[in-house]
């Protein structure tokens, strides 16, 4: 094992930047964040090392005898939160370990042996399983999605029925008590599940899935417990009348199901299948989880094509056409499952579950005919959507930061927060309709009007028979029915201007303060609700100004409002477009919808980032952007390699390896063959921590540094080194190495990846980042430009590309101009 | 300049494969195809070189004086056709030069200087232009698409009207003469344009666009002349009654428009804008052309979302989310333009152009209700689509190969071929309806029935008043109207079983023999026509078996038939699904459509590749697949590096450079700094041929090998090295170097890309291919594993990853198992 020095000095010289004099921006971060400045101090105080060779600036001779004696502060390659010093409130970042995923093909001897011996049967098995898993993911997600829908409609329906009955008897306080009580009980159920069983299940889940698909695995984010809580927490949360959706949670649920199936079940719950070992690697898991995310959207919105596009546009960071097809298959299965179940429920066997078809909010009855004033109004809606959307994101961010302080105090506080939001929501939902006047049921919508206060989608509330309260029809309804009401074009004057304004304000604010509480909560439905209400409002105003002869109906304005607000918060385009089309079945609205989405996204993008990106960043998940920042062009790869490099010899002492594993958290170590094995020090490759642990557990040691490769190849199979789920693999503590064994040698060659991707140290950081991101790497070896130097300069990992890290090292670059050409 | 030897020997030793004894499969191919075996012979017979240094196996000392004296047979890096020996009939491959595109960021001194000096204004300019260009592409493509539509409807409408009038007067032979004559004249117009002005405009154009977006630029494929011929050729071709579509040509047209706009016009026609210099690189051009392809589909099918997805799924090989948004913007513009023009034409100002809205084939009036027998029938349609589709591809391939032999004989033969196919088509269209019986116009479709033989979409042909000939209604109509008839569910018995069968057989065969003639010809419409007819046939049969009470209407069966046949030939899924949805506006068909597409693609994939992939392969375009073949795991990068490596010193003699440029067709040369400039031979980077030409043209030479870098940096600007369009850059012949200058030196450092991507020679070819493909490289440097050897082993280019090249070198790998896990 060696420790390379002189690297730091070289870098400073080569770049002409005097780091010492620049001062390091922001404190408070441990480990490599402070990076460069600390290292020199550390070299003398924490590290002791000896030189075996005489290669100036490069330790280690033929038989390396160097090892680390003491390393108090481990260098975290996988750090628990990358954040700037100004961002102190990190939601959950301080509790959950984060691990990078590795999509590189580890070409070591074992892999090659496995590849050569792979039979046609095994290959067929793999392909068959791949498609079977896609089928199963679609099936399970479809079932769960339908169950979710069914449960919500029945629970919420029962609650609303009870309230309506009491209202009809004019027992207003009792009605409120029943309403708020039901909400509270359901909310507490959801919160208890979330707070005690799976804290990771709170929130939307889309940011976490997005981060996972970008290569960041956070602890228990896809665990079975999270799945369970996500399903039931979401049902309780939505049924509790919160302004939350079930769409985000469904995406997370789909991803969890995919992960569970792909992992060969859960070892903890003794649900494993051995023949799923092929999928025990990050690449195949990523594919499965992409399918799962798509299936989730497909199940939530009954939008199979929208699901595929959502996975493609928002969730996934890597994409191939072969995956497109598999995802398409998965969502097709979801669509078939949903349709079959709906046909089954159409005959009234599912309690209060409606007769709804595959189109959730059908507006195709309204024919879009529009002219110039309409288009101007639509542009206004787009701009409004952009402004409201970016403001929404800003406020959600602020609220989340505040909540995280409360939530961190413990599960009790989490539940208290949920209780208060639940009571507030109940008060709003029950209290605000009192401000609305009663309207007589128009003749056109007679069948929807509450004949006896129970049926129909309009609520009578305090009003008499043949009358309805328009605000109550929005508030005291399920979210889906409220959206249906808003999108409806049957009667233009269904909702008063004031009611729409009140509803918009209430939903906008409730949506902001609800996201972040310990309940699974999607963002789609609140956003659609708020957008639809101001869209309808604009439509009504246009009608007032231009007269009733205006082209577009208010329902379609409402739809465009929803589209614009979605575009303003989520910043998706194609997938939203298709999802909305599949939700509403009105293809003729497509040009207007595209226009609105483009405008709102453009406007909102000039203020801040999309809501999911914001949450990813705030959670401290090290997300790799597709484009590199301009300042990265001014740095070279060698500039950001952090920490002293710990490398092994081809035949390394067990003690040295153990020491390195114990006292660092590096996940990849370069292996360097030195004389007499090689003529000159030569980069043999890279070994992974997980592989080292398995190898050491196997105890194939020898007294001298001789090749035992063949023996190892015989004893181990590539599957022994398959990647377990996060937190499930071997740990250093699991190893039992005797003092005697510590002095023995182990042959690392069979597990060394002989062809890691390499870049020259003079490559610009931007170019290296492109390579790193495009190939989904975990380690990128930086080699020296000039021959004669040590064969490896450093290893770049994900966090070396993070802005916080780079700008921490080179704070003068913060002012560098931004190159917007993504 | 140096020539590295010993490489070949090393490779054979390292791999343990005796190439000599294996025999080289197939002959007849020049250049690197035969690769390894030839090189040794060539080394002594074609090449003469002298050694300047004493580095065993590595030529060149401090001041390299070596140069090539004679190199008769240049080694083509960009070869004119990669094909196996069995494929001799290469369409056009032997005439058009092919160039690889390079998406790598060339980090040389000039680039860095340019980057540092880039102002915020310039950055804004770039972003502004990017979006303006997207807007312009959308605008132009929308206009062209509409113009195309308008022209076809008017020309074809006039022709059909004339025929109908003559038929009404029972002057049958004259009617045929008029019909066939019109067709012939139009066909000859199209053929003359194609044969004499732009041979590249023949065919669909989608394969070429696909290849371009994969990084292969074929000569004049996106030239202005091609654009012109594509537009008018397509109009004439479609109007001439050929069984061809305008969709493929529209994609090509969109790409041409994008290329023209992005190139800053055409230098040939003196249409250039200086401020478009930012887009003079392959990356930006690729993005523009992706937008153009999407706009083409959007304009052809009036399907904006489908266009984006088509570009994503079928056309593009590299994709980023930022591009998704820009493409979406472009297609939104197309949609807006089309809608505005259609509103304009709705008032009858456009001659025979119909009142059609944005939905081309609206079937939303038919409500899909289906049960188990229907689903079984749908599965049958899917399987049939797969079988017919793969057979179609197979036959198209065979016919194309035959035609290419004819077409290669000259423009005259091309036109003759077009004439014969035109006559055949006319005979079929006019002759086959005689086999059909006259049917009385049913009451339901009275308005479509020919009142006076002129109006309506049903044709009376030889029949009396209030009667129609069902076959003539399909044959003697525009393709669009024929599809509309087939998709119609108004009357189940409109078309007889026998008529449908005849029409299917005729269209299927005509479609096969028409593609490949010298006329712009899309594949979508023939495939939809054939698919719709057998779909309707199956629907009628289902109805016969199950009785009229069956759920799905024949129109919807017809739609599913079209979907299945499209899936079977083109093998797209999501984009076809969305395109069909946008064409027909029936969202409730989505689950069935997905099912049919999945089945037909699966069935067809087990026989052969998609039709566009086949054509790309047949045209000899070196297409890089997204996945690597299994045998690539058994080779390492060093195994396939072809040809002797020609490298330059940092300060190189002008004569040497000129010689290398003249006698090789390499496009990248490694630059190696040697003592006394460096301590040991050191890979400085890579220079490109085009950059060398510009540098030599500038004549910044010096008498001795000293650094003139600063001077060069002052004299040149990065834009001087911007990449011109194919065939427009400097050529070696343009240089005028005197004998004296030949002996002078030039400093290559300012134009040397100091950080080319590198891989170690021991990396498996599969892994290197992944890197090459994901980053869109043109050159990939292979460096030695062990220090002390020459700093570069070879350069991998696109053709080194082609199956034909690799399997030519290692024929024993052909039998290696296929790993289907893409």
Question: How do the helices and strands line up, and which of them pair or pack?
Answer:
The structure is a homodimer of 822-residue chains.
Chain A lengths: L1 E2 L3 H9 L3 H4 L13 H10 L52 E3 L8 H9 L2 H49 L3 H26 L8 H9 L1 E3 L5 H16 L7 H16 L2 E2 L4 E2 L9 H20 L2 H12 L5 H25 L26 H36 L3 H21 L6 E3 L26 E3 H6 L3 H9 L9 H18 L9 H23 L7 H17 L3 H11 L5 H16 L5 H8 L18 H4 L5 E4 L1 E3 H10 L4 E6 L8 E7 H10 L2 E2 L6 H7 L23 H4 L2 E3 L10 E3 L4 H11 L3 E5 L10 E4 L5 H7 L13
Parallel strand pairs in A: 8-10, 14-15
Antiparallel strand pairs in A: 1-8, 2-3, 4-5, 6-7, 9-13, 10-11, 12-13, 15-16
Pfam families (chains A, B): CBS (PF00571), Voltage_CLC (PF00654)
GO molecular function (chains A, B): chloride channel activity
InterPro entries (chains A, B): CBS_dom, CBS_dom_sf, Cl-channel/antiporter, Cl-channel_core, Cl_channel_pln, ClC
Structural key phrases:
three-stranded antiparallel β-sheet; Clc chloride channel; four-stranded mixed β-sheet; 3 domains; alpha+beta; 29 helices; homodimer; 16 strands; CBS-domain; disordered N terminus; 822 residues
Oligomer designation: homodimer
**CATH-level-2 architecture of the largest domain in chain A:** Orthogonal Bundle
Kindly report the CATH topology of the largest domain in chain A. Answer: Clc chloride channel
Which two protein chains have the largest interface (Cβ within 8 Å of the partner's Cβ), and how many residues from each? A-B, 83 and 82 residues
Query: What is the CATH homology-level superfamily of the largest domain in chain A?
Result: Clc chloride channel
Strand order of the largest sheet of chain A: 1-8-10-11
Percent of residues in helices of chain A comes to: 40-55%
Give the rounded overall mean pLDDT of chain A: 80
Low-confidence stretches of chain A: 1-95, 817-822
- Structurally, the number of domains of chain A stands at 3
How would you sum up the major sheet of chain A? Answer: 4 strands, mixed
Radius of gyration of chain A: 30 Å
Number of helices of chain A: 29
Shape of chain A: elongated
How many beta-strand elements of chain A?
16
CATH class of the largest domain in chain A: Mainly Alpha
Structural class of chain A: alpha+beta
Cα-to-Cα separation, first versus last residue of chain A: 42 Å
Approximate strand percentage of chain A: 5-15%
